[in-house]
Amino acid sequence: MNKLIQTINGKEVVFNPERHIYTVDGEVYPSVTTILGLLDKSAPLMGWAAKVLIAYLENKIESIKDGELILKSDNASELLKEAKREYRRISQEARDVGKEYINL
User: CA 78 to CA 85: how far, in whole Å?
Assistant: First the structure.
């Protein structure tokens, strides 16, 4: 099912969510998501994931200093696992926002 996005300078822009393509006056173009999917983004994303992990732990360290979080051997492992997963949570949140925007 195609979805009319808008008319720009008299040209109709249509998005096909099943095929993930745009059609502009009959000419087919891949979506930005499709194009970006072809690029190797692993190196920059690894750096970003490491920064997210560090920020998460820094935040928890502040909670420990403030006495809001008591770090013990039984919860330390879980804290590290949560830190490792934090980039996935943020990434999913961003995907959800993107999907909401596309569905406007």
Answer: 11
Residues 73 and 87 in one domain: yes
pTM for this structure?
0.55
**Residue 66 is encoded by which pair of tokens?**
């403030």
* Dihedrals phi, psi of 63, to nearest 5 degrees: -65, -35
- Assess if residue 51 is contained within a domain: yes
Nearest to 24 by CA among 41, 43, 10, 42: 10
**Could you list the residue range(s) of the whole structural domain that residue 8 is in?**
1-39
Total domains in the chain come to 2
Higher pLDDT, 7 or 45: 45
Residue 103 lies in a domain: no
Span between the terminal Cα atoms of the chain, in Å: 15
Distance CA 23, CA 21 (A): 7
pLDDT tens digits for 13-49?
888 888 888 888 888 988 877 887 777 778 888 999 9
Residues 78 and 53 in one domain: yes
